[in-house]
Design brief:
By secondary structure, this protein is an alpha/beta fold. It has helices at residues 8-15, 19-26, 37-49, 56-63, 79-94, 108-120, 134-141, 166-173, 195-211, 224-236, 247-259, 293-308; strands at residues 68-73, 98-103, 125-128, 148-151, 160-164, 183-188, 214-219, 241-244, 269-273, 287-290, 317-320, 323-325. The relative contact order is 0.11.
Amino acid sequence: MKAKRVSLDDIAKALGVSKATVSFVLNGRGDEFNISKKKQELIHEKAKELQYVPNFFAKSLRQGETKTIGLVLADISNPFYAEMCKIIQETLYSKGYNTFIVNTNDDKELEKTLMRELIQRSIDGMIISPCNTIDALIPILHETHIPVVFSDRPGDENADFVGIDNMKEASLLIGKFKNKPKKILAISQHDTSIQTISERLQGLKDASKKSGIELVHINLSSERKEALAQVKNELSNHVDAIIPLNNMVALATLGILQELKINVPNDVKLISFDDHEVFSFMTPSVTALRQPVNKIAAISVERMMERLKESQVPGKHQLLECEFMERGSH
């Protein structure tokens, strides 16, 4: 049988004092209410003896806040989101807030379910990297008045957003190859309705058209055999450069090229949109566009802190610059 949770009333009865006295002492207000040091000491000792644990939600109801921020991430297995999560959690903690982290796996229905569950837990605010469009999220966001900041992936023009200009950054990659490619293969492994992916792809399409370079796109299969066939087929059609649309796709692509015995950069050149810590240690080292994940995370927390002050300033889109990591694969 599950043991009964020790309450303030249990401590009060054990010591023959009022429940209010116990509450004042355990909330650090004993001196304020002229409770003797001896009695305060006895109450703390009895609480420890009975293994009393404060009721977080009851305390939150009294104070009108939970000091908890919900963090909704698209794919925590991706190093980009893992790093963003780490920085947001650490920064919030330094400001006296806990972080309730949920991972959606880019599942649109799961995202909506998890967001509603966070709201039901009375979080004070939410930082979101959404897979759904804002139209799908508005009914959920209207269920609460908590502040929301969109991070990495935007919500709408009126909401706070911290990230990059994916279309612009992708378009710049076309001119980064040492020799002008004849045909570029863009590779994704996500639903291209996700805004960041669709913007990257559109940026590549616009820039390649202006440069007179043919561009083709595939959505890489999760089945290894089929993925090998996809890449092999495109290479046989004179592809001489590849741009994976994020670092996880880049790793999968590099594995396929190795299996097909395709030499990078001699047979095909490659630039990854999004960096990975292993890229600089590979042979050849992988040229990549590095997103400012540290700044995205830190500024997202800054925006949340402003919103928690009930700021009436309109939402702002803060677009940060990426860094081109010139290595050996392009």
